Amino acid sequence: MPIEDRGDAHVITHALAKHTLSDLRSVDTEQVEFRKGLVKLGRICGYEIIDGMMDTEFVSITTPLADTTGERVKGIDRVVVVNVLRAATPFVEGLVKAFPRAKQGVISASRDESAGMDEDGEFPISIDYVKLPDIGPEETVIVADPMLATGSTMVSVLQEVLSNGTPERLLCLSAVSAPPGLVHVHEEVPEADLLTVAIDERLDDDGYIVPGLGDAGDRAFRTK
Ligand SMILES: O=P(O)(O)OC[C@H]1O[C@H](OP(=O)(O)OP(=O)(O)O)[C@H](O)[C@@H]1O
Ligand SMILES: O=c1cc[nH]c(=O)[nH]1
Ligand SMILES: [Mg+2]
Q1: Distance between CA atoms of 105 and 31, rounded to whole angstroms?
Q2: Domains in the chain, ordered, with CATH?
Q3: Can you tell me which atom of ligand 1 is nearest the CA of 157?
Q4: Ligand 2 center–CA 55 separation, angstroms
Q5: Residue 153 among known ligand-binding residues
């Protein structure tokens, strides 16, 4: 199975996804390779979502030689991809290779790390910019963010998305997730399906995923 159900999340198990994530995890992977890795992982995840979560239908087609029957992915043109700035930008670049006709939304969300995690293990989140297309009842929305740590960012982003319409299906796609974040999103937004390439062990005291891959935004944008 390309996607395994593990309770709180669906895990993308494609060997190339695991391989690419291992490159991303390495501290020796520098900015350019890191960014390219996120693009590649986004593309693989997109293909796996299509293969594991979308149906196909038979269609009549005419080749230059004959009439025949082909197969198409149902709903592939009714997808909305939401980019959570900033770390999701290269991830989304890959994802939209699988969904080239997706409508795209952008939400700028960041954790106030100076405030630290509160006693419930959550961060205050600043939402500075929101630009979303209309979301219809026949659409699949994929909210992409490579890191799901405490889940505070994803919960705030999903609330913004849902205030813009109710899609047929709401998917949250991450590269690496921490167990408390998965539980948090599951509890706050039960209608969302969580998809990830890896579920890591834990969060450290600063809210970073361990073993994780560090700060995805800083590594992709070389801001530290
Ligand atoms: O699950 P959470 O605890 O909310 O953490 C996850 C968020 O943290 C990172 O963003 P960050 O705030 O570092 O912004 P950036 O993408 O600009 O680096 C990451 O890209 C997620 O959006
Ligand atoms: O481990 C983490 C947690 C939040 N954001 C990141 O980029 N990495
Ligand atoms: Mg960051």
Answers
A1: 25
A2: 3-55+73-221 (3.40.50.2020)
A3: 22
A4: 33
A5: yes
